[in-house]
TrEMBL record:
<protein>
    <recommendedName>
        <fullName>Dol-P-Glc:Glc(2)Man(9)GlcNAc(2)-PP-Dol alpha-1,2-glucosyltransferase</fullName>
        <ecNumber>2.4.1.256</ecNumber>
    </recommendedName>
</protein>
<dbReference type="GO" id="GO:0006488">
    <property type="term" value="P:dolichol-linked oligosaccharide biosynthetic process"/>
</dbReference>
<keyword id="KW-0808">Transferase</keyword>
<feature type="transmembrane region" description="Helical">
    <location>
        <begin position="86"/>
        <end position="104"/>
    </location>
</feature>
<keyword id="KW-0256">Endoplasmic reticulum</keyword>
<keyword id="KW-0732">Signal</keyword>
<feature type="transmembrane region" description="Helical">
    <location>
        <begin position="156"/>
        <end position="182"/>
    </location>
</feature>
<feature type="signal peptide">
    <location>
        <begin position="1"/>
        <end position="22"/>
    </location>
</feature>
<keyword id="KW-0472">Membrane</keyword>
<keyword id="KW-1133">Transmembrane helix</keyword>
<feature type="transmembrane region" description="Helical">
    <location>
        <begin position="272"/>
        <end position="290"/>
    </location>
</feature>
<feature type="transmembrane region" description="Helical">
    <location>
        <begin position="116"/>
        <end position="136"/>
    </location>
</feature>
<keyword id="KW-0812">Transmembrane</keyword>
<feature type="transmembrane region" description="Helical">
    <location>
        <begin position="228"/>
        <end position="252"/>
    </location>
</feature>
<comment type="function">
    <text>Dol-P-Glc:Glc(2)Man(9)GlcNAc(2)-PP-Dol alpha-1,2-glucosyltransferase that operates in the biosynthetic pathway of dolichol-linked oligosaccharides, the glycan precursors employed in protein asparagine (N)-glycosylation. The assembly of dolichol-linked oligosaccharides begins on the cytosolic side of the endoplasmic reticulum membrane and finishes in its lumen. The sequential addition of sugars to dolichol pyrophosphate produces dolichol-linked oligosaccharides containing fourteen sugars, including two GlcNAcs, nine mannoses and three glucoses.</text>
</comment>
<dbReference type="GO" id="GO:0106073">
    <property type="term" value="F:dolichyl pyrophosphate Glc2Man9GlcNAc2 alpha-1,2-glucosyltransferase activity"/>
</dbReference>
<keyword id="KW-0328">Glycosyltransferase</keyword>
Length: 426
């Protein structure tokens, strides 16, 4: 496991963390809420809660746990700004190993390239920023991926337990816990199939009509009901976690813990287009190939595809016009990525000044949104039809239809209710 990627990861974390702590020794951005709350917990003041905090206290409890372990080992672990930030440094260090393990299971033939692939994912720009701050993002990502690794390893109790921890970092992770539970059920059903009871779950390229969609979902439900006694004990931790989340939603009268007036859930459909644009931008080095260009220019222009493109672009324009929201927080802090994207592009572009409304630029770029949506779907499917646009064609994943169908519903459920456009939400 020790190699150049791990050495590079470790040294980079240490060097950047030292620079950040030297230049920014005091709480920065939202740390002004997180750090004082953690320090209250360190002093045993568990009944104190800052009403501006919107996420559960999982991060603070783990920081207190690390402090307790340090006390047992006779190590002085103060709850200072630097030591609290070190919590996320530990998470970031462990994240590399989790990504190696996940990548090894998804792409078993990559061998040594797996480590470099994991390193590039670890250093993804948006998540990399939060490694050195006391935010919930890094821990949330780590435990969500640990839950997914548990599913891939068929250790369902561990997967459910890690999912429960992930929810204590960000309550919206319950959507991904539900997705992992469905994946677990599919694996359990397939492991018990016989010649009489075979799960109908073709790969996406084999789905010929909407009836195949209903048939695959009906097949999964039918076989799940038949094997309920076998399945339920194995996904019990998922069920307990989801039941706890539902109880919390009822008790809290919503998903947000604090500052509810500024975090009202709604229908923010353009979040999907921001996400696909975001994904397309960062996958451009892999997607912008000569072969993909030929496929777009030469093979996609049929009457059916043109009509579909016009209709879908029209639907996007309607969604943009009626469901675009400019949250006050977007322009309240110039230390966020979204501040510059919104202020420098959406509000100040010359096209916007002519059209007089900031969200009209979104309507003008709806065709590019549609292209980015196609690119995102292609990234998800990893060119399952057998071409070579996938970054790792030799280790291509055959995406099963039900898996993709549930994923297609899980991701919008996670980001569309969010009132604020921010890269960390995707």
């Amino acid at each position: 496991m020790i190699g150049l990627p791990l050495v590079a990861h470790t040294l980079t974390l240490g060097i950047v963390a030292n620079a950040v702590n030297s230049v920014v020794p005091l709480p920065y951005m939202d740390e002004i809420f997180h750090i004082p709350q953690a320090q209250h917990y360190c002093r045993g003041n568990y009944m104190v809660w800052d009403p501006k905090l919107t996420t559960p206290p999982g991060l603070y409890f783990l920081s207190v746990g690390f402090k307790a372990i340090g006390n047992v080992l006779s190590l002085s672990v103060p709850c200072s700004v630097q030591s609290l930030r070190a919590t996320n440094l530990l998470f970031a260090f462990l994240l590399y190993f989790v990504l190696v393990a996940v990548s090894s299971r998804l792409h078993p033939h990559m061998h040594t390239r797996t480590r470099y692939y994991a390193l590039s994912l670890s250093w993804f720009p948006v998540s990399f920023f939060y490694f050195f701050m006391y935010y919930t993002d890094t821990g949330s990502t780590l435990f969500v991926l640990l839950s997914y690794l548990g599913v891939l390893s068929e250790r369902y109790f561990t997967a459910g337990l890690m999912g429960a921890v992930a929810v204590t970092f960000r309550q919206t992770n319950l959507v991904w816990i539900f997705y992992f539970m469905v994946l677990s059920i599919m694996q359990l059903v397939r492991s018990r199939t016989s010649s009489r009871d075979v799960l109908y779950n073709p790969t996406c390229d084999k789905v010929a009509s909407p009836m195949d969609v209903f048939r695959s979902m009906a097949s999964l439900l039918q076989l799940t009901c038949k094997q309920l006694i076998y399945i339920v004990p194995r996904i019990l931790m998922f069920l307990v976690t989801l039941a706890g989340c539902v109880a919390f939603l009822v008790w809290n009268e919503g998903i947000v813990l604090g500052d509810k007036s500024n975090h009202v859930a709604g229908l923010h459909f353009p979040q999907l287009f921001y996400y696909t644009s975001f994904l397309s931008f960062f996958s451009a080095p892999l997607a912008l190939t000569l072969q993909n260009g030929k496929k777009l220019l030469l093979f996609g222009w049929t009457l059916k595809s043109i009509l579909l493109g016009l209709v879908s672009t029209g639907v996007m324009a309607v969604a943009v016009h009626y469901y675009t929201f400019e949250h006050p927080f977007i322009l309240a802090d110039n230390r966020h990525y979204s501040f510059y994207a919104w202020k420098k592009i959406y509000r100040r572009h010359w096209l916007v000044s002519r059209l007089k409304e900031s969200h009209r630029l979104d309507q003008l770029v709806c065709p590019s949104y549609r292209i980015s949506c196609l690119g995102a779907v292609d990234d998800w499917l990893c060119d399952h039809t057998g071409g070579h646009s996938c970054p790792f064609p030799a280790t291509r994943i055959q995406i099963l239809h039900t898996t993709f169908f549930v994923l297609l519903h899980s991701h919008p459920s996670s980001i569309c209710p969010q009132p604020i456009c921010h890269p960390s939400y995707v």
